[in-house]
Amino acid sequence: MSYPEQRYLAExxxxxxxxxxxxxxxxxxxxSGTNVHYLGTGGSxxxxxxxxxxxxxxxxxxxxxxxxRTITESFYVLSGTVRLYxxxxxxxxxxxxxxxxxxxxxxxxxxxxxxxxxxLILFTxxxxxxxxxxxxxxxxxxxxxxxxxxxxxxxxxHDQYPA
Length: 163
Prior knowledge:
Elements lengths: L27 E2 L5 E6 L9 E7 L9 E2 L4 E8 L2 E4 L4 E4 L4 E4 L6 E3 L6 E8 L4 H14 L5 H10 L3 E2 L1
Antiparallel strand pairs: 1-2, 2-3, 3-10, 4-11, 5-8, 5-10, 6-7, 6-9
């Protein structure tokens, strides 16, 4: 493996970093009690990655097993216990545990502990996942149930395939 081709070609560096402080308000608050912080979106990282801090409340929450065709996904548990599914088995992830799924890797996560839990979720490359999260949150607020055809259309638009 080698370094990729240079993308920045100027003679000297620049001052274009982005700082997000830990106490910043969440960008998305879900009805389930989950707060999502958009640490680095595909838009803000020039498509390199998407990084989100996922803070789950004590109520059970998390997606069913699924996979992506165009992006990898990684999870790093920060606090609490997060059930992680690697496509074969469920494991109670604890702080410091890490799960990486390449494209096509079946996975899921859940907080079933009855206590708050948090983790980092990393997508590469930086797809616009925040649009998917916001659509799910909006649907939960309205209580509107989607038809099977509407779920399929939503998933296809966001590279989400049920396992």
